[in-house]
Design a protein that fits this description.
Chain lengths: 66, 321
């Protein structure tokens, strides 16, 4: 599956057959700090991802110290 | 439909998000409902404002400020937007575009202030001129100009998109250093006093993950990229630490911040400079201040006479550190 990451924006190819939470763990990314969008639709942590999916890993943490 | 997909706690339709702190999954419709209810509870619990009040929403182009503007308008509040052009290169250009499109598409009133055009400096230049981190000049400029716009425009309150993660991270930092004055005024609503307008944070019961999901479901385009000036700042490090705790112990961030408000804040009331009556008036701009000249006027003095600094110069300097 194609996985699109941000900050900086880049793409990696990874095998499917894993859950959203497993993907975040494998990428060493916090589940609290990211959303997963599969083929344009938001999906929960236990959703299964397939080889043909296009996945966006969207970070949600923002902000300076205002 | 596969039988093993997780389902919305409310309607049992397939879920789009899991929220461990609520021990529940939600579909898009009911996540939006949850966000609206959490905002309404914050407004009511802390008596922030009423539908009769005129609100000025500080909008940056990010998810939180656009989400709160959207929720307030949907709930029937009179809410105009205020965008501050910070001069952070492409990031500011993009952010301003998102805000203008949001306002245009919904027919909402947007006020724009530009640091370079209106005050003769921008955030990268101010960072170099003051020899401080960019977030310092940025935060100071925002606080002063949001206050001024609200007072000049006759608004009843300034609304910001600060969320639970923002407030928990600030609380964490202030607690690490026992900043009693800052802790004493870290409240979801600050009443108008000493020339300052009322300031309200209706999203303090929502996490960043929830406001980002709200925007996705509502079709709100926002700037996803992080501000390049904020990379590596302490605030982000505190958020990372708190998220690590949250993943092990869902609900920890909400307990940390919301219990501070109910159990600790009352003990600190009266300990701030404003409460002690130490606030006077700036001799130059008339804004409230504890000194003779306010921090914003001192910032302008240093920054507007400094040669303009390109954003890349500040970024290179921060990367080399």
């Amino acid at each position: 599956m194609k996985v699109v990451l941000r900050n900086p924006k880049r793409e990696v190819e990874l095998p499917g057959g894993r859950s959203v939470n497993r993907l975040l763990d494998d990428l060493e990314l916090s589940r609290e700090a990211h959303l997963i969008i599969r083929n344009g639709t938001l999906v929960p942590g236990d959703a299964r991802l397939d080889d043909a999916d296009v996945i966006e890993v969207r970070p949600v943490i923002s902000g300076g110290s205002t | 439909m596969p039988a093993n997909v997780s389902r919305c706690r409310v309607c049992k339709e397939p879920a789009v998000i899991d929220l461990p702190r609520h021990n529940a999954h939600f579909c898009g419709e009911h996540l939006v409902q949850l966000c609206n209810r959490q905002m309404a509870k914050a407004i009511e619990d802390w008596e922030m404002f009423t539908p009769q009040d005129r609100l000025l929403v500080a909008v940056s182009g990010g998810k939180d400020s656009l989400a709160v503007w959207d929720m307030l308008v949907a709930a029937g509040y009179q809410a105009d937007g205020l965008y501050l052009g910070l001069g952070i290169g492409e990031y500011s250009d993009d952010s301003g575009g998102y805000v203008r499109r949001f306002a245009d598409e919904r027919g909402l009133k947007l006020i724009t202030v530009d640091l370079r055009a209106d005050y003769g400096y921008d955030v990268p230049t101010a960072a170099v001129a003051t020899k401080r981190v960019p977030c310092s000049a940025c935060g100071l400029s925002k606080r002063h100009l949001f206050d001024r716009a609200a007072v000049d425009g006759g608004y009843d309150a300034v609304v910001t998109g600060h969320n639970l993660d923002d407030e928990a991270a600030v609380l964490f930092g202030n607690t690490l250093r026992w900043e009693i004055d800052y802790l004493g005024r870290q409240l979801p609503v600050l009443p108008a006093a000493n020339g300052f307008p009322r300031k309200c944070k209706p999203l303090v019961r929502l996490t960043e993950r929830e406001t980002a999901a709200y925007c996705l479901i509502r079709g709100i385009d926002y700037v996803v990229e992080e501000c390049p000036m904020a990379a590596g700042n302490r605030h982000l490090a505190y958020k990372e630490a708190l998220n690590s705790i949250e993943q092990q112990s869902p609900g920890a961030k909400a307990a940390f911040y919301l219990n501070f408000l109910t159990k600790m804040s009352p003990l600190l009331a009266g300990s701030t400079a404003a409460a002690r009556g130490d606030v006077g008036t700036c001799g130059r701009c008339g804004a409230p201040t504890t000194g003779d000249v306010c921090a914003f006027c001192r910032l302008i003095e240093k920054s507007s006479t400094h040669e303009a600094v390109p954003v890349e110069f500040v970024l290179d300097k921060r990367i080399r550190r």
